[in-house]
Specification:
alpha+beta; Arc Repressor Mutant, subunit A; globular; DNA-binding; HTH_HxlR; Transcriptional regulator; transcription; transcription regulation
């Protein structure tokens, strides 16, 4: 980093990172967003695909929905099913998810060698 941040700019930067982590932090949220990038999923599909318990999945999806990143649709089927999909707002995280995927692939190659 060639730029020296002022104290105020550094505090704003830290606050922005904390805000971001409040929304997408934790073990599952970014994984769920990545899975949903390929299309909508039913609750049980997400649970199986990600390997997450229904209780934790429900909590994570509620938080993502509350932050406007995921939409929830109750389907009029018997039994009733619920589908989850990304919202247009979730596109604002595309660069972050792409960068994290690239870094993760690079890191895996370095560590596994």
């Amino acid at each position: 980093m060639d730029t020296i941040l002022t104290h105020e700019a550094c505090k704003r930067s830290q606050l922005a990172v904390r805000d971001t982590l409040d929304v997408v932090g934790g073990k599952w949220k970014l994984v769920l967003l990545t899975v949903l990038r390929t299309g909508k999923r039913r609750f049980r599909e997400l649970s199986r695909e990600v390997g997450i318990t229904p209780r934790i999945l429900s909590k994570e999806l509620q938080e993502l929905e509350m932050n406007g990143l995921v939409s929830r649709t109750v389907c009029e089927t018997k039994p009733i099913t619920v589908e989850y999909a990304l919202t247009p707002y979730s596109e604002t995280l595309s660069e972050v998810l792409d960068a994290m995927q690239r870094w993760g692939e690079q890191h895996r190659k370095k560590i596994i060698v």
